[in-house]
Specification:
By secondary structure, the protein is of the alpha/beta class. The chain is about 45% helix and about 15% strand.
Length: about 240
């Protein structure tokens, strides 16, 4: 009698049967099911990855659509090596130069999904503060902004800026990422919220829908993509 691998959907069904509803437990176990069937390319960086982030990379790799609202930093998928190195070097505990270099390589590897044959649809909304915080200094920030302007031309990427004058909005102070999956892929849609040393995975459908509604409202009040591109270029020009 043949044996078939356990899929993330199998795990989800079993957890529902046994009334296991803790989002962190559900995410961790479905990620294990996924990783047991296919060794992820990112596992060669396993010594640098906390468990909670390795699971995210697996979800990111399989998502058909990724929507992110960022309040502080350029999303990892869009960071230049110089910007990424500055972010990583500022962390606590301090990383060695070699560890920073390897993590920058990991981030660069993640970015390949934007140009693969079937990339996910990525929609990123950046708070204006992201454009103005001088991560790595003026030259690094300017290079990062010019890179954003270039990346905005990718067919699968939509980029918007939420300007300061938008005022109050439904996600003040909280960045989040929504990962969506094609029907039949074996994964439920997930909201990922990263803290300094941990992450929250929101998987209950009703909760996910609330984050989707917030994202829709943020998109509606943000600058249109062309206006956003013009603002990004202007901030870069102002930096010299």
């Amino acid at each position: 009698m043949g044996r078939s691998p356990t899929t993330p959907r199998d795990v989800t069904d079993l957890l529902e049967l046994y009334q296991v509803t803790d989002p962190g437990t559900v995410t961790a176990l479905t990620a294990l099911a996924r990783q047991s069937n296919e060794r992820g390319w990112w596992q060669s960086w396993g010594d640098l990855l906390p468990d909670w982030f390795g699971g995210y990379i697996g979800l990111e790799t399989e998502a058909s659509a990724i929507s992110a609202y960022e309040t502080q930093l350029v999303p990892g998928l869009l960071q230049t090596p110089g910007y990424a190195a500055a972010v990583l070097a500022a962390g606590i505990p301090r990383r060695s130069e070699s560890d920073v270099a390897r993590q920058v390589q990991l981030r660069t590897q993640r970015q390949r999904l934007l140009t693969r044959d079937t990339p996910p649809n990525v929609w990123a909304v950046l708070d204006e503060a992201v454009l103005r915080r001088p991560i790595g200094g003026t030259d690094v920030l300017r290079a990062q902004l010019l890179h954003l302007a270039d990346q905005a031309q990718l067919p699968a990427l939509t980029l918007q800026v939420l300007p300061f004058d938008a005022g109050a909005h439904p996600a003040l102070g909280t960045g989040f990422t929504i990962l969506r999956f094609d029907a039949g892929a074996g994964d439920e849609d997930v909201v990922y919220i990263e803290a300094l040393d941990s992450a929250i995975y929101v998987e209950r459908p009703a909760d996910v829908r609330r984050y989707v509604a917030r994202m829709d409202l943020i998109r509606a009040i943000a600058l249109r993509p062309q206006q956003s591109l013009e603002m990004i270029r202007k901030v870069a020009d102002d930096l010299g």
